[in-house]
Amino acid sequence: MPSLHDATRGRILFGGDYNPEQWPEEVWADDVRLMKEAGVNSVTVGVFSWAMIEPRPGVREFGWLDRLMDLLHSHGMGVVLATPTSSPPPWMGALHPETLPRADDGTVVGYGSRQHFCPSSPVYRGYAKALTEDLAARYADHPALTVWHINNEYCTHCWCDESAAHFRRWLAARYGGIEALNSAWGTAFWSQRYDNWAEVLPPRRAQYLRNPAQELDFKRFTSDALMECYTAERDIVARHTPHIPVTTNFMPLWAGQDAWAWAGQEDIVSVDVYPDPSDPRAGQYNAMIADMTRSQAGGPWMLMEQAAGAVNWRPVNHPKPAGLNRLLSLQSVARGADALCYFQWRQSRQGAEKFHSGMLSHAGENGRVFREVKRIGAELSLIGARVTGSGVPADAVVLHDWDAWWSSTQDGRPSSLVSYTELLQAWHGGLWDGGISADFARPDADLSAYRMVLVPQLQLLKDAAVDNLVSYVRGGGTLVCGFFTGVVDEDDRVRAGGMDSRLRELFGIRTVHEWWPLDAGATVECDGFSGTLWSEEIEADEQAETVAAYTGGELDGLPAVLRKGTAYYVSTLPAPEALRALLGRVAAGAGVRPVLEDLPSGVEAVRRGELLFLLNHGGSRTTVTLRGSHLDLLTGDVADGAVELGRHGVAVLEEVPA
Ligand code: GAL
Ligand code: ZN
User: Fold this and answer.
1) DSSP 215-261
2) Cα–Cα distance measured from residue 543 to residue 509, given in angstroms and rounded to the nearest whole number
3) Quick one: average pLDDT of 246-265?
């Protein structure tokens, strides 16, 4: 199987999306000159080129792409070649309106933007496959080709009749008979019983709350339907070029694709990461996405897109202050990225993204943004051979699961203020604040390599996952579990007693009497800290120890944090500092240490392979004390005992033997 290693060969891939079809060919020459100057070695081409390559149905215009591929190759650039199937040309929608997706209220989603295709449409799939076939045949032997990039950020949903028929086929394969579907969906409720398959529909717009199990299955189905589109194209390119790795770029924390399942179908796992430069937690967010993607990849991963400056899709789009692009870029490398790419190379002058930054911004080659890009390119070439292929050691792992996420986003739950992704970020953030490196894993994964397992919240847990957690703890592992976990089974049916009995036994919970969600901004006092968002009226059994109790209020004296052996249950969301402290204490007990002790606030330390990365997110200059001498690979300086980090500063250190 080809891998990212086949594309990197000891260098970090550096570059970005390149859309030269938006520019006259004279500009291309300037582009390659500046790419070389910036240390770019990889460009992603073709992502939105369908209408250029196939201007009319069945026509092929590859001449411009031939010239482009040759030009890039002659300047030493590798090409990540995209199948342009995420944005069908207008002719397809005009000629075949059934290829256009329909919203849940039946509205047609028109062309004129992008991603306007029904994943279940055989007509769309037919055109996409035919074009992929010809593209793959044409460039299979092109020396510039390094990676296949299938489609772009698969994210469409469709409720049309074709999708409905496809959904029924998917359900029939899952359940066999209609009575099994009725049982799984709990259709005895509100007279929803189906008498035959023809009556079954996707969860379309309805009078009141929709069936949550039907919605859960539709999310599973949609992820699978999109994956069929992906694997169809992947199989075509893989047949032409078995030695070239294939990827499709994920959106981070995107509910629409079960990334664990998708990652298993890719040679390279890649992701697009856009932390908000004005968010004081941007560094933590970037770290979390890196950890998640590395875990999905099972090793080095590809950062397919990031922004050199501002994006164009937030209400207010802040640029990156000087140094932040470099800091976040090197942070991604520290956390396992072997490829660091941007959207996009040259900022567009027309279209919806003309105010989205590029590596080469409107300010041009003398602009500050491009200067920083050149610096990053030069620095990556200094460390590439030392980092590529190497791992990021972690003793802690955060569990993350799409079924649980989907089940927790439905209407009609105890609190709509609870956000799965915010909990994930809060818990990962507690580790990050404490300097502890973490991986992510699915709840049924082999956890034996970790000393500590965190479950921020998994409302839905399958039996196998419950058994996995129980046997992990029985085997001596430390488990810290957040509230409202193990509440429903695979079909979204509430477990007897409101929480899986094996988990109740594990944590020492005799009874879950009531869930007590909190209002926005409200807190609940506990021994030594405040909780937010949620609380629970639970009764402990004799073997459980109350680590912290609620104080005052309706739950006075009841356990807020409960422990039985090495299994902890946290029935509220402790304020950030309290969560950091709690996780830090439990980690210490489990033998999980921070990468470095006593760091100045805002400084992150990460080990990758033999190197130690120090990253200053704190906003001002600071000094890190270290034992021994270290060579900074970026400056060539040797530091004895202490390393200075400027604002947004980074050091990549190698220990110098005494
Ligand atoms: C991504 C997309 C790119 C570009 C970018 C802007 O979602 O893949 O094509 O639109 O966002 O931030
Ligand atoms: Zn459809």
Assistant:
1) HHHHHHHHHHHHHHHHHHHHHHHHHH-TTS-EE-EEPTT-TTS-HHH
2) 9
3) 97
Does 658 have pLDDT greater than 90?
Answer: no
What angle, rounded to 10 degrees, do the helices at 63-74 and 25-38 form? 30
- For the CA atoms of the chain, what is the radius of gyration? 26
Q: What local confidence, expressed as pLDDT, does residue 542 receive?
A: 97
Q: Average pLDDT, stretch 145-162?
A: 98
Q: How far is the CA of 152 from the centre of ligand 1 (A)?
A: 9
Find the 343 Cα to ligand 1 centroid distance in Å: 6
Q: From the CA of 114, which ligand is nearest?
A: 1
Class of domain 603-656: mainly beta
**Ligand 1: does its nearest atom lie under 6 Å from the Cβ of 439?**
no
Which-ligand-closest: CA of 164? 2
Q: What is the architecture, at CATH level 2, of domain 4-159+223-387? A: Alpha-Beta Barrel (3.20)
User: Which listed residue (162, 305, 372, 604) is catalytic?
Assistant: 305
Distant-in-sequence, close-in-space partners of 33: CB < 8 Å, separation ≥ 6: none
Question: Nearest bound ligand to CA 312?
Answer: 1
Pocket flag, ligand 1, residue 311 (CB < 6 Å): yes
Q: Measuring from atom 7 of ligand 1, which residue has the nearest CA?
A: 153
Confidence band for 476, pLDDT divided at 50, 70 and 90: very high
> Residue 233: what are its φ and ψ, rounded to 5°?
-70, -40
User: How many angstroms is it from 125 CA to the middle of ligand 2?
Assistant: 12
| pLDDT the model gives residue 516 | 98
The residue whose CA has the least distance to atom 4 of ligand 1 is: 343
pTM above 0.90, yes or no: yes
Taking only the tens place, the pLDDT of each residue in 52-68 is 999 999 999 999 999 99
How many whole angstroms from 77 Cα to the centroid of ligand 1?
22
pLDDT of 160 higher than 90: yes
Task: Please give the structure tokens belonging to residue 89.
Answer: 């040309």
Ligand 1 pocket, 304 CB below 6 A?
Answer: no
Is 644 considered catalytic here?
A: no
- Six-digit token string for 407: 């089940």
d(CA 406, CA 223): 11
Whether the bond into 350 is cis, omega within 30 of 0: no
Q: 343 in ligand 1 pocket by Cβ < 6 Å?
A: yes
What ranges in 12-89 are assigned the alpha helix state H? Answer: 25-38, 50-53, 63-74
What residue owns the CA closest to ligand 1's atom 11? 343
Domain spanning 396-590: which superfamily?
Class I glutamine amidotransferase (GATase) domain (3.40.50.880)
Q: Where are the domains of the chain?
A: 4-159+223-387, 396-590, 603-656
153 carries an active-site annotation: yes
Angle at alpha carbon of residue 472, lines to 469 and 478, rounded to 5°: 95
* Distance (Å, whole) CA 652 – CA 334: 9
Q: What pLDDT is recorded for position 186?
A: 98
Q: How far is the CA of 164 from the centre of ligand 2 (A)?
A: 7
Judge if the beta carbon of residue 274 lies within 6 A of ligand 1: yes
Give the mean pLDDT of 16-28: 97
Long-range contacts of 352-356, Cβ-Cβ distance < 8 Å, separation of 24 or more: 352/113, 352/312, 353/312, 354/312, 355/310, 355/312, 355/317, 356/307, 356/310, 356/311, 356/312, 356/313
Nearest-angstrom CA–CA distance, 234 and 647: 43
